[in-house]
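Good day; I would like, with your permission, to put a structural problem before you. A protein sequence and the structure tokens that stand for its backbone fold form the material at issue. The record follows directly beneath this note:
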Amino acid sequence: MADYSAARLPGHQAEGGYYTFEVHVRAPDAKSGGAGARRRRIAGAVAGVCVAAVCLIGATSRPAGPVGLAEGGGVSNQMLFGSRHRTTFLDQLKTDGNFPPAVHSAMDFTVDPCTNFFQYACGTWQKKAVIPAEQGGIAKSWDTAEDKAYAALHQLMLAEYPSGSPDRKVHDWFKSCMDLKTVQEKKAAPLKPWLASVEAIDSHDKLWDTLVLFQLWSIPTMIKLSVSADEKEPLKHDLFLEPSGLVLPDSSYYDTEDDDDAKKHVAALHKYLKSITMLAGYSEEEAHASADRTIEVEKMLAQFQDDEPWVSIEDSYMHYNKSQLEAHSPNIPWDKYFGGLSAGCKESGLECLSTLGDKNNLVMDAPYFYQKLSEAFGNHTADYWKPYLRTHVIYNLSPLLSDAFLNATFKLDAELDGVEDQPARWHKCVAAVQHGLPGLTDQLYVKHHFPASAKKKAMTMMEQLRQAFISNLKNVKWMDEKTRAAAMHKAESIDFNIGSPPRGAPLWGSDN
């Protein structure tokens, strides 16, 4: 599926809780509207990228002449006040501003930056940008960086390596994914072990064994786990529990009572789920029933997300220990769930979730969702969830299966996001290997494309930024001394992690 966070409707809140906007890029006579129409959309996030790029001009060198930078990278008084006419100043920026070529070519110097800074910073790029047929949206800087990284990984995965070496494992996985003849011949066969685990569910114990298995293999379900810095103590890390479980981009796509577009989206999803379930070997009747139940469950999960009460930022992250979590959502066997994940890690030679227990390091940003999810598990038999898990395992593994599965997924993407073509197979396979062997893939990339000298330069730059920030803190007038001391301590405590772990991180090389 396309990355919808890069192509959101104006003012629309994505699942992650942030807001984006879209810019349509189409021919003047192109028809607008309709879920099936070609929608060329550009991420609003590019505005920030362009602004940042413009603000960083001349950070390492100063041009000769009246337009220059002050010592330390600031804009000089000569630059700000030396010109008698503001228009002259803006004209000089166009010719003497020392912008990097990629930034200069994106800017629209016919626009007054004080009237519309986005157009000034990115207007020319916006006019000329063409979204590739296989994408639903693009972000100027992020997509370019990702494309370069994928192209580099593609070449590394194509290369031959000695038998038994970690790099050979990356190559073999990629080669297996690219073996289209075998993929076509196997059809739905690779799904059989996963579907067998679903069909064997006849109790809540087996239901949770399957949910643990899916989590270990990164097959999304209604429970989403992530590790991130604590909101108030950034040097500490928490385990975040977030709402999840939807195929469509967010909960608003399921509002079929009040939204005609949502009705079309859900109908398209039902048709798709039925199609891929039949491709997996189920009868039309079974596939239809599975699609019905999956839509029912996803509508329920979407409603839980929509009904999450609003809370202030201060209270938005609820910290729990494991006992409190069990009391909050008693029909979810957290001890069994986390214990299964920990055991799965140990089987792969890893240690995970070892600090869970009495510590308040579990965070729910959607406590109502998990409370209602717990009630749903209590109100339904294990058998109720089987069709949902069945369609989800097929859906999440289908991008790497035969053309029949890919074509079905493409039809849904075209309906929802207006894509006109499928991504190249190699691109899917690079992503699959990177997802399945993250440590080995990262090491291979760093070894060939991120030398120690590059890391040293980046670390030096970051340290200079730190010292400039600390120097500025010393002169901030609105801070009292206690706040200033705390801010400086925090700045001095930041640990830079650039490009790769600074030392042998335990996850590296553990892709068994």
